TrEMBL record:
Subcellular location: Nucleus
Keywords: Acetylation, DNA damage, Nucleus, Transcription, Transcription regulation, Transferase
Residues covered by region (Disordered): 1-23, 349-426, 536-559
Biased composition (Basic residues): 405-420
UniProt key word Cell inner membrane: no
Entry-linked Pfam families: HAT_KAT11
The protein's name in its UniProt record: histone acetyltransferase
Top-level division of the source organism's lineage: Eukaryota
Main subcellular location of this protein, as a coarse class: nucleus
Enzyme Commission designation: 2.3.1.48
């Protein structure tokens, strides 16, 4: 698919940029816009409610950590095993002529992605955990030259979560760690010959191509100017630029480096912040493990300061990171960030509110210009009143009367209770007629997160149930088609227990072209694409070459250049 066709497809999928309660653009509709035309897919979206979790970054000395809430989202896509078979297969019982039962088509999982969301009062962070495919997408028999829709599906799912988690005056961050492996979520899929496994360089380029349309599609007044950051430990800046997609706006969108100092609110509040307070802690992340190793070298006397002995700043951290963990295994690894800063309107509105609040304290003048008040530190111990019940001397000095004992009040309440008399009427038991998911009984919007109904999964489960479903998937077998069908059936049935609607059917609407590099008809139908296939020629066997040459020169003899003996010179041998 050409770059113009791909960008137009993403623009149509990202048409509703600002999440509003009246938006009817669902995840199913967006996925249908990028999936191949005329093919049926089944979408399974599993998620957890916002739950209080450990903070991503450690707080500076004498500071409280940020209150953090976490969510988990898992998206899986399956197809029919027999695409050309009828929708239902009739199975007759032995000795009977009539069809007795019908069974649906067998499903096989083809792609899955897992995303974690961490929200605080200052930012919303989306961390891409794992993404993997089984390699059975060839069962659809797509036209030759059609690109795999996994890249578009990943980008659409990320954009959908970003739009439905946007909050005013809050920074939105997308982060991932690209590490090439043969399989992530589907055990045994590496034995499938149809699976296309990317190497280390190809995987970093693939993720950059996934995230680049997010910056171009979400650019506007609602999002401002997003920035992408790419860091490959061990590579220079010029070599790292080769992984960035070559588009018209890629030079302005991408920055070689890391944004850890720009996405932390501690940098704006303090003059100096320890490096460990700027490094987030993600699940299965190498920089988090390296940070834990550096914490072990800190003595107990200096644990309150958390000043590392070997690493003094973030530059040294990333320099040593290239020799630690997965970065030193001989393969390239990439750390990628997307940062969506608050728009200028939101920032101006917040500054206006702060200025109006501080205007009541003192009038403005040339000696007292308007400015944001400094951060106030509250001494909790100084404001907490101490109890004087334990010391009679302090009661006399204060002059306050002694507090009544709570035990006497409880005794009086017990005495006032009356004994129940009369016949005992039994209450009928309440019959539970419908299942109720108590996980949904949570506020939609708070100071720390935004959880709209549109951004939730088709099935909302608890954290323990979510981990059980993921662990089940990691213990199945997808080495062959029969085993993959059985494993897919087991996971779909186990993960969908208790769900009213599980497995939304999606019909693809994206039109595919048989020849990717072929010319498109000019005019109003589309842009003209230059055909370059004729410029690339492969080496043919000698027999075919001779036949084609003889057929093309039937009119005249074939001229052969013969070199004379004088043109050939032998290298003289050195005499020992």
């Amino acid at each position: 698919m050409s770059s113009s066709t791909t960008s137009s497809t993403f623009r149509r999928a990202f048409k509703s940029v600002t999440p509003t309660p009246t938006s009817t653009d669902t995840l199913r509709d967006r996925l249908a816009a990028v999936l191949p035309h005329g093919f049926k897919f089944a979408v399974y979206h599993l998620s957890t409610p916002p739950t209080k979790t450990e903070p991503l970054c450690s707080a500076p000395p004498d500071e409280r950590p940020d209150k953090t809430f976490g969510e988990s989202h898992f998206l899986a896509i399956s197809i029919d095993r027999d695409h050309d078979a009828p929708a239902f297969l009739k199975r007759a019982s032995p000795g009977a002529d009539e069809a007795k039962a019908t069974e649906p088509r067998a499903q096989v999982l083809v792609f899955a992605v897992e995303i974690f969301i961490f929200t605080t009062a200052y930012s919303t962070t989306l961390f891409v955990g794992k993404a993997d495919s089984t390699g059975y997408l060839h069962l659809l028999k797509l036209p030759k030259g059609t690109s795999s829709p996994t890249r578009q599906v990943t980008a659409i799912f990320l954009a959908y979560l970003i739009e439905h988690r946007r909050r005013k005056n809050t920074q939105t961050i997308v982060n991932l760690f690209a590490r090439a492996q043969s399989q992530y979520l589907f055990p045994g899929s590496v034995q499938n010959d149809g699976k296309h496994i990317l190497d280390d360089r190809g995987l970093v380029k693939w993720w950059c191509r996934v995230l680049n349309p997010l910056m171009e599609g979400l650019r506007g007044e609602a999002w401002g100017t997003p920035k992408g950051y790419l860091l490959v430990p061990g590579l220079e800046e010029t070599d790292t630029m080769a992984f960035v997609p070559r588009t018209a706006t890629s030079a302005d969108n991408w920055v070689i480096g890391h944004p850890l100092e720009k996405i932390s609110h501690y940098v704006d509040e303090f003059d100096w912040v320890p490096p460990r307070c700027l490094i987030p802690r993600y699940p299965d992340d190498p920089k988090s493990r390296f940070r834990d190793e550096l914490d072990e070298e800190v003595s107990k006397r200096k644990q309150g300061i958390w000043k590392w002995a070997s690493v003094k700043n973030l530059d040294q951290f990333w320099e040593m990171m290239s020799f630690r963990q997965e970065c030193s295994s001989g393969r390239l690894t990439g750390f990628i960030w997307l940062v969506f800063n608050p728009t200028k309107k939101d920032t101006a509105a917040q500054a206006k509110t702060t200025t109006s609040t501080s205007s009541f304290d003192a009038p403005f003048s040339s000696h007292n210009p308007p400015s944001t008040p400094p951060r106030r530190r509250v001494d909790i111990l100084a404001q907490t009143p101490r109890s004087n019940r334990g010391s009679p001397l302090k009661q006399d000095l204060d002059g306050s009367p002694p507090r009544p004992d709570r035990r006497k009040k409880k005794d009086k309440l017990k005495r006032k209770k009356k004994k129940l008399t009369g016949p005992i009427i039994s209450r009928p038991p309440k019959v539970k007629r419908q299942l109720r998911n108590y996980l949904l009984d949570r506020p939609t919007s708070t100071k720390y997160y935004y959880w709209p109904p549109e951004g939730r999964g088709a099935k909302v489960v608890s954290e323990s149930e979510y981990k059980r479903d993921i662990e089940l998937l990691l213990h199945l077998d997808f080495s062959t088609l029969d085993k993959a069908v059985g494993s897919s059936r087991r996971w779909i049935s186990q993960a969908g227990v208790g769900a009213d609607e599980w497995g939304a059917s999606v019909l693809g609407k994206a039109k595919t072209q048989g020849n990717l590099f072929g010319s498109v008809s000019s005019g109003n139908q589309g842009a003209v694409v230059t055909n370059l296939t004729g410029l690339v020629r492969r080496k043919r066997p000698s027999q075919e070459t001779g036949q084609s040459t003889a057929g093309s020169n039937e009119s005249g003899p074939i001229s052969i250049n013969v070199l004379d003996a004088g043109w050939i010179r032998k290298k003289p041998k050195d005499k020992a």
